[in-house]
Amino acid sequence: MSVISVKPLFVILSTLSFLLAILLLSPSTPSLQSELSTISRNSGNSDIWSVKRIFEWRPCNWWLQSRLTPLPEKNNGYIRVDCYGGLNQMRRDFCDGVGIARLLNATLVLPKFEVAAYWNESSGFADIFDVDYFIKQMNGFVNVVRELPPEISSKEPVRVDCSKRKGQFDYIESVLPSLLKHHYISITPAMSQRRDRYPQNAKAALCQACYSALRLTKSLEHKATELLEAIPKPFLSLHLRFEPDMVAYSQCQYSGLSPTSMKAIEAARGDDRKPWTGEAARIWRKRGKCPLTPNETAFILQALSIPTNTNIYLAAGDGLMEIEGLTSIYTNVVTKSALLSGEDFESMHGNTKAALDYYVSINSDSYMATYFGNMDKMVSAMRAFKGLYKTLFLSRRAFAEFTSEGLEGERLMQALWKAHKDDFVMGRGSALPDCFLISKEAYLVHGDIGTATFYSPPYIPTKCDGNREEQFPPGNLFVAVSEGLWDNGAACGRRYRLRCLSGPRRPCKRKTIDVKVVDFCPITPCPSTILLSTDAFAAIAHQRGRKINIEYIQI
Ligand SMILES: *[C@@H]1O[C@H](CO)[C@@H](O)[C@H](O)[C@H]1NC(C)=O
Ligand SMILES: *[C@@H]1O[C@H](CO)[C@@H](O)[C@H](O)[C@H]1NC(C)=O
Ligand SMILES: *[C@@H]1O[C@H](CO)[C@@H](O)[C@H](O)[C@H]1NC(C)=O
Prior knowledge:
six-stranded mixed beta barrel; glycoprotein; glycosyltransferase activity; 18 strands; binds 2-acetamido-2-deoxy-beta-D-glucopyranose; membrane; glycosyltransferase; RlpA-like_DPBB; five-stranded parallel sheet; Barwin-like endoglucanases; Rossmann fold
């Protein structure tokens, strides 16, 4: 076995105690946060994130393991997915389209991203997402080509319109014949479809495309990282929807808005979007149809005991109304326009801004949304995928119900706390069931803290199972443990869930992995609590941090 360079013990110890001190003081460490906020709470509630979650969404195994089943030999033709609307809607349609291509045994051509006129931009797929990475990540899930074969490269695809189809739309029945006939078609996926009827390989292709294969281009990611770094930490990313068109679309009425807002809403209402009045308006509101105002949002955040000095990144489009309702209470609110240089911001397209909000929101300490739109669905699922559990949707319905019952002040706060706490505990809304499975497992909220390094092959023989190859789990996510965890060999086969917390030079990837114990630490003295296989280490950290702090829990 190769030996990792081991620092003198006192260096390790002093570094460790220093890092531990940082960990103890860092409010973003979940296992410790609960204790801290229990002490500091003043209204009788600790903050919502310190509540222990019972249910957690996890990516399904059939997705993660699906690369193992071979792709069909016979190709039925080529499909281009044509996507319209905002960035997150295009992305969702594209994911669907990837699943359809796999279902139809077709080869995927890079999609067309047709940006709605009001975005004023030409951003195609390749301007936003890293094409090489996409193709690489989809390997084994579906065939993707960058260039069409010469015999069809000069043709435009034949458009098969399924976008308006609803319900039990069957692609094999209605689209496959066109594909076989024309050999190159373009589709915009139907609005709703019975994904539950897809074979697993098609669903897996969709999941892989949506959650594992789309990465921003280098230059966009660079910009996004800059933005992320400029935001004070730790921070909550808040997706607020209270733009004139949103409010007009909701057909809700609000009292107490400024004349400017009222005028903007009126202007956005067409003839078919007149607001409900009287009893209808009350019923509509009670069903949770009305967007939360920034003021109401601030009230709910307070009910959830989110301190008013919390750093909040506003992940929202331009044109939010009544934002003072939030910023007068939560004073540390930052926006893109304030953080990016003016010139940069001016020249930025709508899709670029949406991509930045998305990136920041899947990397924030916590995420809350007042709506459950395309962005929220993407972000919450990505966060579930990465093991970031602090995700919550504020309940318009709960707010409307309680206020219609006449609750106010402290009683309203208590009721809101309870409703949201229940949602959080049950993991409601944190992911969609297509690619994720809800499982009843204590999450990492109360894990232990230790250190991890990696060790290199040869990994056999191990102290647990000698030379047997079968002892290693798929993906080589295995570890060797030090004396404290070894338990005289009883540790063999135990499984741990772990994630990287910190380390020198920001090594952590924000992902949680499950590992299996196969060996006792092969190095003396053992350099860390847990030694990860190189694959396991690479899954949660960059190698530049050879030694990292981890949180782990036996599962
Ligand atoms: C796709 O290929 C598989 C074999 O790999 C076959 O079983 C299936 O029927 C094919 N589906 C279509 C729509 O051609
Ligand atoms: C669209 O953006 C370009 C610069 O990117 C600008 O020159 C042009 O005037 C804009 N058009 C509209 C309609 O806003
Ligand atoms: C915000 O809501 C509070 C009640 O929660 C109310 O007293 C206040 O007037 C509202 N402010 C605005 C600007 O609407």
